[in-house]
Amino acid sequence: MSEQNVGEQAPEFLDATVVVRRLVACPVKQVWKVLMSKEGAEALLGPGAALGQKGNTWRADDGRSGVIRSLHPLEEVRFSFRLDDKATPSVVELTLEPQDASTLLTVTHSRLTTDMDVSWLSERWEAALGRIEACVSD
What we know:
Layout: E1 18-24, H1 28-35, H2 38-45, E2 57-59, E3 65-72, E4 76-81, E5 90-99, E6 102-110, H3 118-137
Antiparallel strand pairs: 1-6, 2-3, 3-4, 4-5, 5-6
């Protein structure tokens, strides 16, 4: 049974999922290495954030935060995502798929609540994948 304060309503979820993809012209091992670096984690999550092991929390300088839910090297990282400490957590999964000498990155953001802007989230994850690609290319 979930705990709620009297008068507090349960969050309403959208029947929507944000999915963003980008093909990066580098092998999976190279992309994963960058993603696990400080620079790569900040490209994905925001300045000040770091990826860790399953169960570790992360927090960006802008107040966004979450918990690492799973981490499978060279394959995927899944984490909760909160815009601020009062927000209901949503779920983000970043998968890496080898494509010859390239890597297909896919961000899937689910469990979106009605107060979340789907267009803004799409743009945010598009920009994050662009930053990761720029880090890999350096």
